[in-house]
Amino acid sequence: MKIATFNINGVNGRLPLLLRWLAEAEPDVVCLQELKAPQERFPESAFREAGYGAVWQGQKSWNGVAILARGADPVETRRGLPGEPEDVQSRYIEAAVNGVLIGCLYAPNGNPAPGPKFDYKLRWFARLKAHAAELLALDAPVALVGDYNIIPTELDVYKPERWTDDALFRREARVVFEELTASGWSDALRTLHPEERLYTFWDYFRNAWGRDAGLRLDHILLNPTLAARLRAAGVDRAVRAQEKASDHAPAWVELGRAGSRRSKASKP
Question: In sequence order, what are the residues at sequence separation of 6 or more whose Cβ sits closer than 8 angstroms to the Cβ of residue 3?
């Protein structure tokens, strides 16, 4: 099974690029973020024609998450994180696909920090951690996939010293990621590429792509059951170079069948 995450930054505006990548990469499951489309404007029929079933939670102008499944219809199990009923931002959706439970998330950016937006980010992550603990307790394969808006380590940012006070790299945010991985979730890309400088995001400004001034914000966390099946992981960087590209590139993992042995890490 190949699972990918892609912050598409506008699903309708970048639909041709997304469909082209789906045809080339052939992921079995795709978690999309920043749909920037209301519920009724999600292009379900285009994905259906491309061979993908979908569940989604849209939101006008901002946010929005979706799970696509190749040759299957995801079975939705949750919409939104528990713990703050008044939160109407479309940032989490969960579904079962071919026996694997997939949580697709788009975490808050949190800037400017400190401030109300950063406070909301930390509250949102507290809710995610609580739900992640419940998922870990399940006797099932689970993946938490998406744009975490966290730069976990200095290896994940082109110039760490420039990001010290940014909400993406502040210590409070990085601790959240450390606590998730310490609790039993495996950071799939880092598991197979422990020393490589990996990026999944390059800003549109200041020629960030041309300078390779990137950040790793998009992560695929696997529970122990799925971590044992991890075979390969990478980033489809070339997608970021295409015309009218998102500022993110897809990240992905390949999983073997239960009981299969891990292969050598693939290059991102």
Answer: 27, 28, 29, 30, 31, 100, 102, 143, 145, 220, 252, 253, 255
Domain 2-255 CATH superfamily: Endonuclease/exonuclease/phosphatase (3.60.10.10)
Does the active-site annotation cover 106?
yes
User: Is residue 248 annotated as part of the catalytic site, yes or no?
Assistant: yes
DSSP assignments along 182-198, one per residue: HHT-EEHHHHH-TTS--
For residue 246, give both structure tokens. Answer: 């998102």
Say if CB 106 and CB 63 are below 8 A apart: yes
Q: Is pLDDT of 267 > 50?
A: no
Q: Is the pLDDT of residue 264 over 90?
A: no
Q: For the chain, list the strands marked E by DSSP.
A: 2-7, 29-33, 52-57, 65-70, 75-79, 92-97, 100-106, 142-147, 186-187, 201-202, 214-215, 218-222, 230-235, 251-255
Query: Residue 42: what pLDDT?
Result: 98
Q: Which of 28, 52, 92, 106 is the catalytic position?
A: 106
Which pLDDT score is estimated for 258?
Answer: 80
Structural element, H or E, at residue 21 = helix 15-25
Alpha carbon distance 67, 76 (integer Å): 9
For residue 191, the number of C-alpha atoms closer than 13 Å in the C-beta half-sphere is 26
Rounded Cα gap, residues 173 and 157, in angstroms: 14
**Is residue 158 flagged as an active site residue?**
no
Average pLDDT over every residue of 192-197:
97
Instruction: Please tell me whether 149 is known to bind a ligand.
Output: yes
Instruction: Report the amino acid identity of residue 74.
Output: P
Residue 9 is labelled as binding a ligand: no
State how far the Cα of 180 lies from the Cα of 168, in Å rounded to an integer: 16
